[in-house]
Amino acid sequence: MFARLSQLTRHLSRPLPNYSNSPATAASRSLGGPSIMSTSAAEDRSKRMIHTAGCIIIGDEVLGGKTVDTNSAHFAKYCFLLGMNLKRIEVIGDDEAEIGEAARRMSENYDFVVTSGGIGPTHDDITYESIAKAFKLPLKLHDDALKRMKALSKPHPSQKNFSWDTPSPALDAKLRMVQLPIDESRDESNQVLFVDESLWVPISVVNGNIHILPGIPRLFTQLLDGLKPLLMPRLENPEGKGVYRILFSTPTAESEVAGYLSKLAAEVEPKGVKVGSYPRWGRKRNSVTLVGKDKDYMESLVPQIEKGVDGVRVEREEDADESEDDAKI
Length: 329
Description:
- The protein is of the alpha/beta class.
- Helices cover 39% and strands 18% of the residues.
- The protein has 12 helices and 12 strands.
- The protein has helices at residues 23-29, 39-47, 60-63, 71-82, 96-109, 127-134, 143-152, 169-176, 217-231, 254-268, 295-308, 318-328, and strands at residues 52-58, 85-92, 112-116, 139-141, 179-181, 192-193, 203-206, 210-213, 244-250, 274-278, 286-292, 312-314.
- The strands form 3 sheets. A 6-stranded mixed beta sheet has the order 2-1-3-8-7-6, with helices on both faces.
- Strand 7 and strand 8 form a beta hairpin.
- The longest helix is centred in the last third of the chain and has 15 residues, at 217-231.
């Protein structure tokens, strides 16, 4: 398959890197903690321009097939529309060591990182505590988050005798959701973001660039939308645009156009443009894409590509199919 643009990586096939034995980690122990936990580095991560992004989907239920992950697909579209280069998506289980390793690695490698899942009230919701441990941070009951939870959430119908003022297992479970990783050497307002007035759920920000979000799709998308205004000034294009996709539909087999597309890819790569080819099983037409930031240059290639793949430019993959079906009527 030509230039396959895969976005979802389950478990890595190679062993995870052993940070505990690296020279950088050994040196950091003498300073009392990992180098990535320095206040200045975290502040830098929270303010620098955003070019790259990573996503960590957390949950045994996803790996076990019980829950279908849609958050990573939404995040991929979100990044594309904002001009962020999404470099990696990983799905990992409810495992403290794996959550911590992935969070440290992605925080170091990418400008903007989100996690999805594992921040509920039950024993297997361990994202906050796992990331806190990874960055040697305490979990702190966040008063504002608790106040918002009390004001905006309602007890489940089964909890008729629940009281915020009476100790109970249910209260303890709720409080788990507002015990957040806090770096007490930094401004707390930059670490706990309330981006939607209709929600009590905060976005916990760790190490300046890890944004911890819930796994519930409605909340995940709503909080990302609320976060957008805070990200805009840190994007390469202040309008939050800059990545474009041009789609072509062709009746020609991939193997037939592979040679042409290889030459095209080599030609456009210096301009930061990628060429993709995608089969559409069960349909008579396949798809070819151009993705890049130089819109004028990409537009100039359209006639050449239409001729090269014996196809047409479309807005949606289905458009040419519909024209073909209409012609049969």
